[in-house]
Structures are given as structure tokens and as C-alpha cells.
Amino acid sequence: MSLVEDTLTWLGDGSHWEGQDGVPHRLLVHLGLTAASVGLAALIALPPAVLLGHARTRWGGAVVAVANATRALPVLGVLIILASTSLGLSTRSTVLALTIFAVPPLLTNAYVGVREVDADVVQAARGNGMSGLQVLRSVEIPLALPLMAAGIRTSAVQVIATATLAAYVGGGGLGQFLNEGFARGDSAEKAAGGLLVAALALLVELTLAAVQRRLEPPAETRL
């Protein structure tokens, strides 16, 4: 049979959808790793990014540049290093490594989103007696939300793809199908694992894109 037929046969095998080694369980683990990593990255990145964007200081750009430089770090290398520490082969080491990878798009988009809010809108808000905190909360953050949502979307999709590497250090998730497929020389399992990861990434991308569109302010607000 061809690889396509073999892959469809593998996906249609009920035994691959049952138990802790089945697709549903590993899918939930993969989503859990992604949610934990992106959530922790948001807690780390969003507050300083929003404040730096609001302050509009030169240091904001430097912080963003440093954060973006971390994208050059090899995620698998970071996973291996963390697994070699007291954290060991654990969910914590996996989430920490993926969090490092998830921070840059969140930080960059939140900073740019707040900083690039129209200065005339900000001045009008201040002219109406709003304090700096009120301007940030009621004007800048709402107008920056679409770009912030785009950062979350980018981060989530990247982490979903990268989390497949977690299987190499015992992190679990859909990457285990790829890992096991390579170990067994099973091309159908490798292809099925890759297809499942791609389908999940596409589904999350479409869902978060829809959320981002809902957050777009009315046209008259952006003028």
C-alpha cells in the first residue's frame, strides 16, 4: 500500500484511539502543555510589555530585542539541559522550555500594540481628565487587544508545533507518535503523528483568528 493508505489505515485502527497511548489522551496532554506554556508566558510577558508600551521609553525596544533574540535558542537543546537538572524528565521542564519559546511574540505584540495607539486618541483621553492608569485600562489596552490576540495566536501555534519535541525528553503529547514511529521505522505512524499535529495547529489557528477578528474595534474607533 501507499503511504497515504497506510496512514489512513493507522488512523482508522481503533486500538490507536484507546488508553493512555491513544490519540485522545495524547491530544489532551499536548493541549495541556500548550495551554500551560502560553499561559505562563502571558503572565511573564504581558504586564511589562503593556507598561513599557504605555511609558513609550527607549528601553521598551531594547527589551523586545532581547526577548526576540531568545528565538535563536534551540528548543530541543533547552529541553535537554532542563531535563539534566533537578527538574529531570518532567512536565515542569517541558513547560518551562516551551514558555521561553512562547514569550517573544506575546511580548512584542503587546508592546507594539500599546505603543502604537494613536497619540491623538491618548491625548484626547488625557484632556478629558483621565489619569495615566485610566488611559491604559480604558483606551490603550482595548485598542491594542487585536494585536495582543495575534501574539497569543502566534505563540500558541508555534508551541503546538514545537511541543512535539517534548516526546524526546519524556514530555508526552502527540510527538510520541513521531518518536515511536522513528524508533520502529513505522512510516504510517510518523505520518499520522505529523498529520495530527498539523490538524491541531490549523484548528487552533482558525479558532484564535476568529477571536482576534471579534476583538477588532469598530472602524470609527480606529479613526
Provide structural commentary.
By secondary structure, the chain is mainly α. The protein has one domain: MetI-like (MetI-like fold), CATH 1.10.3720.10. The chain is 77% helix and 0% strand. The chain contains ten helices and no strands. It has helices at residues 3-12, 23-55, 58-69, 75-83, 91-115, 119-127, 132-162, 175-184, 187-215, 219-222. Helix 5 crosses helix 7 and helix 7 runs antiparallel to helix 9. The longest helix is centred in the first third of the chain and has 33 residues, at 23-55. It is elongated, with a radius of gyration of 21 Å. The mean pLDDT is 85.
What is shown here, in short?
The chain is 77% helix and 0% strand. The chain has 223 residues and is mainly α.
Instruction: Tell me the name of the CATH homologous superfamily.
Output: MetI-like
Rounded Rg: 21 Å
Based on secondary structure, the structural category is mainly alpha
CATH class: Mainly Alpha
Give the integer mean of the pLDDT values: 85
- Overall spatial form: elongated
By CATH, the architecture is named Orthogonal Bundle
- Tally of individual domains: 1
Distance between the termini: 59 Å
Give a count of the beta strands, DSSP E runs of length 2 or more: 0
- Which stretches are poorly predicted, pLDDT < 50 over at least 5 residues? none
Approximate helicity band: over 70%
Count up the helices.
10
In percent terms, what proportion of residues is strand? under 5%
The description of the largest β-sheet is: none
> What's the SSE pattern?
HHHHHHHHHH
CATH topology: MetI-like fold
